[in-house]
Amino acid sequence: MKTKDTFAIVAAYNEEKYIGDVLKRIKKYIDEIIVVDDGSKDKTSKIAEESGAIVLRHVINLGKGAAIRTGCEYALKKGVKNIILIDADGQHDPKEIPNFLNALKDHDVVFGCRKFDKNMPIVLKFGNWTLRATTKALYGICLKDTQSGYRAFKADAYKKIRWQASDYSMESEMIANLGKTKLTYTEIPIETIYSDKYKGTTVVDGFKIIINMILWRFQK
Questions:
Q1: CB 190 within 8 A of CB 213
Q2: Model confidence over 158-185: pLDDT tens digits?
Q3: Which helix (H) or strand (E) holds 56?
Q4: Which fold has domain 3-217?
C-alpha cells in the first residue's frame, strides 16, 4: 500500500546505471520521489524524469549533504509529513520502506542499521566503530551504525536536525543536532548491497567528521 504523505529523497551523482531500477522499486511504496541531481554529467536526470520522479538539479556538484538538503527543503514546502532518505546506487533495498514508516509511528527519527559482516568493507567497520564511540561520548546518542544513509524522519523533526554540511559529514551532523533535542529515535536492521567499489566516507573524511563533531558539541 502506497503512502501519499511521505516523500523519498534520492541524491544522485552520475547514477545512470542504477537510478532507473531504484526509482521503479521505490514507487511500489511511495508516490512522491524527489531526485536531486547533484551536477551529474550522464543521463541521471533524464532517466529520473522518465521514471516519474520530481527532478531538482544542481548545476555543479555540491556534495551529498547539500543535495539532500535541497530535496528536504522542497518537500517541506510541499507540506510533506515524513521524509525518507535512500541512496541512488542500489545499495538500499526499497522493500524496507514500510519498516521505516512503521517505526516512524512511534519515533521522530529512524536510522537504518547495516550488518557488520564480511561483506562490509573494512574501512567502513573501523570508521563506524570510531564514530559510534565518539557519538556516544559527545552526544549520548547510542547507535550501532552512525553512517548509514538509509534513514527517515518526520518533517517537524527535520526542522530541528537540519544540517549545514555539504559533504558526507551531514549524517553525523544530523545526529549531533539530534543529540541537542528531545526527539525520539530508533534503529532498524537493513540489508545493504555493495554493488560498486566503495565510494562513500573515506578515512580522511572520518577524521574530519570527528573534528567537526567536537566543534558541533560546543555550538549553540
A1: no
A2: 999 999 999 988 999 999 999 999 999 9
A3: strand 54-58
A4: Spore Coat Polysaccharide Biosynthesis Protein SpsA; Chain A (3.90.550)
Q: Which residues pair with 36 in a beta bridge?
A: 11, 56
Q: Nearest Cα to 10, choosing from 162, 49, 169, 78?
A: 49
How do the domains of the chain map onto residue ranges? Answer: 3-217
In angstroms, rounded to a whole number, what is the distance separating the alpha carbons of residues 172 and 185? 14
pTM equals 0.86
**Model confidence over 101-128: pLDDT tens digits?**
999 999 999 999 988 666 665 666 666 7
* Cβ neighbours for 23, distance < 8 A, ≥ 6 positions apart: 10, 33, 35, 48, 51, 52, 53
DSSP character for 192? B
